[in-house]
Design brief:
Helix content: over 70%
Distance between the termini: 49 Å
Number of helices: 6
Largest sheet: none
Strand content: under 5%
Number of strands: 0
Shape: globular
Structural class: mainly alpha
């Protein structure tokens, strides 16, 4: 039901989280259902927009979310920064370190190409 109108749902949730991110306040956990948060995280994972990935990081850092479901979404989308954070939350520090290294390596290669 939440994703019958994904564009409208995402826009609605974007407004909520944009406001929270700008104000530095965290939305009370009970104000957002787990299903709604997971549906929103799924839409953010599917996006290629860097701003959406920043919102994803904000959601993961500030809200209770189903770890296993979010981990699966981040793995499927190959979002290594968010994936690494979730691995840290599950105390899989070795995997988190590998993922963070992969991200740094990509940035290093890009900097070599651009210089």
């Amino acid at each position: 039901m939440l994703l019958e109108h994904p564009t409208e749902f995402k826009g609605f949730m974007d407004n909520i989280f944009d406001s929270a991110m700008r104000s530095g306040k965290v939305i009370p956990v009970k104000a957002i259902s787990e299903d709604a948060l997971l549906a929103y995280i799924n839409l953010l994972c599917e996006s290629t927009d860097r701003e959406d990935h920043e919102k994803l990081a904000y959601c993961i850092n500030n809200y209770d979310y189903p770890l296993e479901d979010c981990l699966e979404l981040c793995q499927e989308s190959n979002l290594k920064e968010a994936w690494a954070y979730i691995e840290e939350q599950t105390e899989n520090y070795y995997k988190a370190l590998q993922l963070r290294y992969d991200v740094m390596e990509v940035f290093w290669l890009i900097s070599l190409i651009l210089c």
